[in-house]
Amino acid sequence: MTLSVKEKGGFKFVDEGSGQVLMLLHGLFGALSNWEGVVDRFSKSYRVVIPMLPIYDMPIKEAGLEGLRKFVEDFVAEMKLDQMIIMGNSLGGHVALLYTLHNEDRVEKLILTGSSGLFENAMGGSYPRRGSYDYIQERVAYTFYDPRVAAKDLVDEVFETTKSIPKCMRIVAIAKSAQRNNLASDLPKIQVPTLLVWGLNDTITPPMVAYEFNRLIPNSDLRFIDNCCHAPMMEHPQKFNQIVETFLTPAAA
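RE: above sequence
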């Protein structure tokens, strides 16, 4: 499905379906296409909202995890959202964790997939190198178990982004902020039911990271998807959505 972007109060976002809010938070190089399978499946039963995080154009002094958390808080206030289920991939998972730690009264459930917050290899171990299409193609493919998932339009989008010096400066600032912002001591404070969906072959946030999240977050459930790397909702959308649906569906009495 093609997702349409709306604007309100200076925010750009996707808003599909009706019901309880399912807010999706994308990663550092996240595109709307990352979430198409999730929106298609869950907009039938939920109001699926995706704020476009200002990763590439936020003031450089605010380019970091705290700035992104504040952005999400402002977005939630503008949209008057409450009793949310929040799903975050990679950097988006990190932002979801920070938001939940500061606003747990607004969060009913949390879903993390390939989240940063404990340990991650940035771009597969290095920051974006400007001007080399082959390098960007290699780095994008590194985030998938099957490199063919890294379609040309996705590589093109990342390549165009990394051609901009101001955007690269913000990407590096946010990536460094994420590496500094270790949440190990804070995760035990999260009390909402939490689902961890991880690629068994994740090279950015390896399985050991998932196990550590599972150990530190009290009310958490860990599920792995085999032959899958850092973006399960893209590589195995049907398996991913089924795991999420089971988590969200109340158990029969």
